[in-house]
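Thought: the user wants the 3D structure for the chain below. I'll pass the sequence to the structure tool as-is, report back what it returns, then summarize two notable features.
Action: structure_tool
Action Input:
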Amino acid sequence: MKTLLYTICMGVTLMLSAQNNPTAMNLYDIALQDIDGNAMDLSAYKGKKILFVNVASKCGFTPQYEDLEKMSALYKDKLVVIGLPCNQFMSQEPGSNEDIKEFCSATYGVTFPMTDKIEVKGPGQHPLYKWLTNKALNGKVSSSVKWNFQKYLVDENGALIDYFYSTTKPMSDKITKYL
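Observation:
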């Protein structure tokens, strides 16, 4: 019981601290692994905007990979697109990391960074998505991930700019106006 109370108190303390200091949890300190299982250092992208997209290979929005790749090439000097495979929406990303990598490369010519499969909601939510979806951590807005291909845009200094639902195409003016 003491452990549970301690955990709850620490969580509340961290949340209150983050509310008073939005930089308490720095985006660049969040650990990720790339699709090959190697550490991915987000601080390597300081000075560029980052578009985080939870992706899936068997989704109606999967053709957005084409525009994400186009966007990645067109804005490569000021933007990094990062695909984060997720199998939480109707099991639309059932394959292994190797399967996902092969599909994305062969079908859409994807060259932008991809991570290993993660969870974007629920009890197993990855720390990146805790940051992206929680105003107390990102200092901007709270949101929930509704479906595959929801997009989160972060500025050159690691601050959340905005998020966009799956129906917003990657090359939409809603996104590109920030680039």
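Final Answer: Structure generated. Residues 1-24 have pLDDT under 50 and may be disordered. The helical segments are 2-20, 64-74, 97-108, 127-133, 135-138, 173-176.
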